[in-house]
Design brief:
The protein contains 16 helices and 2 strands. With 377 residues, the protein is an all-alpha fold. α3 crosses α13 and α4 crosses α12.
C-alpha cells in the first residue's frame, strides 16, 4: 500500500506538467497563452491607434461640453484609472481587494497635508507626494497580504483599509500634526479642503480651471491605460494570469507566486494613488469616505459591471457607474434605492459584464454572417 501511494505521489507532478503543457499549447494556438508572449509587440499598433483616437476625441470634448458635463467626464476618467488599477490585481491576478480605497485616499490626503504644512502650492509636488505615499502604503500592506490567498487575502485588505480609515476618522493622524492638525480635524471632521494649485508654476483662473485640469486627466488616463495594457500583455502579466487560473500549477512551473502578487499589488496601488491625487484636485476636497472599504467595493462593482476579462471592461464599467450615480442624484430621498435598482437592472441585463455581452454578440454576428455567406446546397 505504501509503495502504491509513493508511486502515485511521484506521478502527480508529471501529470500536472503534462496538463500544463497541453493548456499552454492550446493557449498558444488561440493566441492568448504564455507561449505567445512575444506577440505582444504586434499589438502595439492597434493599441496606439486606439489610444490616439480616444485621446483626440477626449481632447475635443471641452469645445463641445459645458463646464458641469466636462466635470462629470473628468470624474469618469479618474474613476476609470482607479478601476484599471484594481483590475490588474483582481481581473488579471485573481486577487480580490477591498482595500484599494486606502491608496486612493492616502494619496489625496498626503497632498493636502503637504499643502497645509509646507510652502508648496504646486500641483506637481502634490501629485508626486501623493503617488509616493500610495506606493509606500501599497508596498507595506501588500507585503503582509500577498502571502495570503482567496478570502483571506480579501479579509486582510479590508482590515488594513478599516485601520487606516479609523486613524483618519478618529483624528489620530491629525493629532500627530500638532495643534493646527487637530484644529483642521475639528473644522472638517476628517475632511480636508484642497485649493486650486498652480500647474507648471502658473495660476489658472477659476473659470478655466476645469478645462485645463481636464487635459491633465486625459493625459494621465491615456498614459495609465497604455502602461497597464503593456503590463498585462507582458510575460509578467501572463504569469499573473497563470496564478489566477491555477496557483499551485503556477508555483510548480517556477513562478514565484507571492512575489508576483506583491508586485502587482504595488503597481495597482500606485495607479490607485494617481487616481486619488487627481480626484482630490478635481473635487478640491478629500473625505474619509474615500478610505472606507465601501469605496473599494464601488470600484469592484464597476469592474464587474464592465467585465473583468477584457482590458476596456473597467473603463466602460467606470463610465456607466458614474453615469448611473449621476442619473440617481435628483432623487434626494431615495437616491441610493434608485441607484441600486439601476445597478440591478444592468447586472441582470449583462451577467458577464458589458464587454462580455458585446463580445458574445460580436461572435454571434460573425457566425450568422458566415452562415449567410455560405452557398446553399
Amino acid at each position: 500500500m505504501r509503495r502504491r501511494l509513493s508511486a502515485s505521489s511521484r506521478s502527480e507532478p508529471v501529470r500536472i506538467a503534462r496538463e500544463h503543457q497541453s493548456v499552454s499549447t492550446k493557449s498558444a494556438a488561440a493566441g492568448t497563452g504564455p507561449a505567445c508572449v512575444g506577440g505582444w509587440r504586434k499589438g502595439w499598433s492597434p493599441a496606439l491607434l486606439l489610444a490616439a483616437t480616444a485621446g483626440l476625441v477626449l481632447v475635443l470634448m471641452p469645445s463641445v461640453l459645458a463646464v458641469y458635463p466636462l466635470f462629470i467626464l473628468s470624474h469618469m476618467l479618474v474613476f476609470a484609472i482607479a478601476c484599471l488599477a484594481v483590475n490588474l490585481l483582481y481581473g488579471t491576478a485573481g486577487s480580490l481587494s477591498f482595500g484599494h480605497g486606502t491608496y486612493f485616499g492616502v494619496a489625496a490626503y498626503t497632498g493636502a497635508f503637504v499643502y497645509r504644512f509646507t510652502t508648496a502650492n504646486s500641483f506637481e509636488v502634490y501629485l508626486a507626494t501623493g503617488i509616493l505615499s500610495a506606493a509606500l502604503f501599497a508596498t507595506a500592506i501588500g507585503f503582509l497580504c500577498a502571502r495570503s490567498t482567496k478570502i483571506f487575502f480579501t479579509l486582510l485588505t479590508l482590515s488594513f483599509s478599516m485601520v487606516v480609515y479609523s486613524l483618519v476618522i478618529d483624528g489620530a493622524v491629525f493629532w500627530l500634526l500638532g495643534g493646527i492638525g487637530w484644529a483642521l480635524y475639528l473644522l472638517g471632521e476628517g475632511s480636508m479642503y484642497i485649493p486650486r494649485l498652480t500647474i507648471l508654476g502658473a495660476e489658472v483662473p477659476a473659470a478655466q480651471f476645469i478645462a485645463v485640469f481636464y487635459h491633465i486627466i486625459v493625459l494621465a488616463f491615456i498614459a495609465s491605460g497604455l502602461v497597464l495594457w503593456r503590463i498585462g500583455a507582458s510575460p509578467f502579466g501572463q504569469a499573473l494570469r497563470a496564478i489566477r487560473d491555477n496557483e499551485m500549477r503556477a508555483a510548480f512551473i517556477g513562478i514565484p507566486v507571492w512575489q508576483y502578487r506583491w508586485r502587482a499589488f504595488i503597481i495597482s496601488g500606485v495607479f490607485a494613488g494617481l487616481a486619488g491625487s487627481l480626484y482630490g484636485q478635481l473635487a478640491r476636497q478629500i473625505t474619509p469616505d474615500q478610505l472606507h472599504w465601501l469605496f473599494s467595493a464601488k470600484l469592484i462593482l464597476a469592474i464587474v459591471l464592465g467585465g473583468t476579462r477584457h482590458f476596456l471592461g473597467p473603463v466602460l464599467g467606470a463610465f456607466v457607474f458614474v453615469l448611473l450615480d449621476e442619473v440617481a442624484t435628483p432623487w434626494a430621498v431615495g437616491r441610493y434605492m434608485m441607484f441600486g435598482a439601476l445597478l440591478i437592472v444592468f447586472v441582470f441585463a449583462f451577467p458577464r459584464g458589458m464587454t462580455g455581452a458585446f463580445m458574445a454578440l460580436t461572435q454571434a454576428a460573425k457566425r450568422q454572417w458566415g452562415q449567410f455567406g455560405q452557398p446553399r446546397r
